Amino acid sequence: MKTKSLLTIMAIMLCCYLCRAQNVPVDSVLIYRLLKDISIRNTFDEDVSKVTPAQFMFTIPRSGEKSYLVDGGIAYTLGYLKNYTAKAIVEYHKNTMIEKEQDNFSVGYSGLYYTTIHPINVMLTHNLTFVDDGRKSDRSIVFVGNLSPYSTKRKIRFNAPGNFGDSRFGYLLTPNIGTEIQQVLKSLLPEREGTIFRGTADFSGAISFLQKNPDPINTIAPRILQLSFSYTLRRAFSDNTSVGERKTELLKAGADFFILDKTTKQVSLGLAFKKGSNPLKGLDSQQYWQFSVNVQL
Known about the structure:
It is a single chain. The chain is mainly β. It has one domain (about 5-205, about 235-245). The protein is about 10% helix and about 60% strand. The longest helix is centred in the N-terminal third of the chain and has 19 residues, at about 5-20. The radius of gyration is 19 Å and the shape is globular. About 30% of the residues are buried. It comes from Pedobacter alluvionis. Keywords: Signal. This is Lipid A deacylase LpxR family protein.
């Protein structure tokens, strides 16, 4: 994708954030009615409560090639039913600052359903997308489904922020299990075409230092600093392509300093360490440190 296209995507995301940040009644103008249903995050494959902000960085040297990081997506809410939310999603993951560059685009549908598998409340996330991997020249149809526990009333919460008593420390636990089905429709190498079926497990969480809160028992204060951890395991149970995929892992650990932290919007500066791979996002196995500006709506 050309630099102008990347800048256009970044400008759209920034405009969405600025408009959402204004204290203007969203029903007063048509554009606000549209913008209130727009969300921005790193990926919509994961639970909505997981801390996954979109990440940006851009370098334009006086001479030589430009370097940039655009790692995020935009979703528009199509509608709400009882316990169900439907969204149209677009994601772009482009990173020229790492050893094995990443160039991955996807577009499709995302659904979120809250239900109870007695005695546990759960969230069911499911996506159906078309994925174009620019580096490998692979084009695929992908289904992703995740199952996560959800609790806001127990002493230990899942997929909802919690406090350590009346202290200024909070936590967020977001474990899930799931499945990925990838049908490679077209590839530069025909032997790469076929179907890959994966099982997934994700163990992730975060600990935060919070602003002072006059009511720590009933409310969660905005975050100042957050330390997060995520480990994702993928196991290919079936692969009839030439890739021969078996097990892949992705470890992420980071620290984020929050410039803004509200219920529907967050902006932070982040430092992260990543090791491993994510085949659906075109990230090859490697490890690196990354500093970025993070946005989540």
